[in-house]
């Protein structure tokens, strides 16, 4: 994880954890244990493992990812999408900031008129929603998805040599934006 995305990663996970507790999806004691494990994982620089949701659901087994998805559908009316079954338009892939996607467990995957479509496993994190609202600069249609779907999409994207120029441009733009702050 690049230094520029690390604060976003930390904030996204901290606020997601707080929301999981607030919505009675996990106990505070379990979140505290998961936070300790999360800090260890982040220091190893493994983006696919750097997720408080993944630690709670798959390492500690105190939460089911499906319960979180069901919760956001029921309480916020968020739709669901599986990016593995969706043909993402090339325009949506062009300037993809992969570091921000990993940090927020979210992927902008389409655009219709002025609406941006974003798939996320971290909808409950206000930091994630705020980040993407600033990035896309228009209305967003949010879609819940799994950690695995996000990770598979990002790894497939990163492995595609045709996206190398787009990744370099996105990295340069992110570095320039960070320098101008």
Summarize the main sheet: 4 strands, mixed
Rg (C-alpha, Å): 16 Å
Walk across the major sheet and give the strand order: 1-4-3-2
Tally of helical segments: 9
Helix content: 55-70%
Strand content: 5-15%
- How many strand units? 4
The N- and C-terminal alpha carbons lie at a distance of 20 Å
Main attributes?
alpha/beta
Plain-language structure description:
The protein is an alpha/beta fold and 181 residues long. The protein has helices at residues 6-22, 28-43, 52-59, 65-76, 90-94, 98-104, 126-136, 147-159, 164-179, and strands spanning 79-80, 106-112, 115-120, 140-144. Strands 1-4-3-2 form a four-stranded mixed sheet. The protein is globular. The model has no long low-confidence stretch (mean pLDDT 89).
Summarize the model shown:
With 181 residues, the protein is α/β, with parallel strands linked by helices. It contains nine helices and four strands; from the N terminus they run H-H-H-H-E-H-H-E-E-H-E-H-H.
SSE topology:
Layout: H1 6-22, H2 28-43, H3 52-59, H4 65-76, E1 79-80, H5 90-94, H6 98-104, E2 106-112, E3 115-120, H7 126-136, E4 140-144, H8 147-159, H9 164-179
Parallel strand pairs: 1-4, 3-4
Antiparallel strand pairs: 2-3
């Amino acid at each position: 994880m690049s230094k520029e995305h690390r604060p976003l990663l930390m904030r996204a996970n901290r606020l997601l954890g707080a929301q999981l507790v607030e919505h009675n999806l996990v106990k505070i004691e379990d979140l505290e244990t998961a936070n300790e494990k999360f800090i260890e994982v982040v220091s190893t620089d493994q983006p696919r493992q750097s997720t408080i949701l993944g630690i709670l659901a798959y390492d500690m087994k105190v939460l089911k990812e499906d319960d979180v998805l069901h919760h956001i559908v029921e309480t916020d009316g968020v739709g669901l999408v599986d990016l593995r079954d969706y043909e993402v338009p090339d325009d949506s892939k062009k300037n993809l900031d992969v570091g921000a996607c990993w940090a927020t467990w979210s992927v902008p995957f389409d655009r219709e008129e002025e609406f941006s479509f974003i798939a996320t496993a971290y909808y409950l994190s206000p930091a994630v929603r705020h980040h993407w609202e600033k990035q896309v600069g228009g209305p967003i249609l949010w879609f819940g998805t799994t950690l695995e779907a996000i990770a598979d999409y990002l790894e497939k994207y990163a492995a595609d040599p045709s996206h190398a120029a787009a990744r370099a441009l996105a990295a340069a733009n992110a570095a320039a934006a960070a320098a101008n702050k």
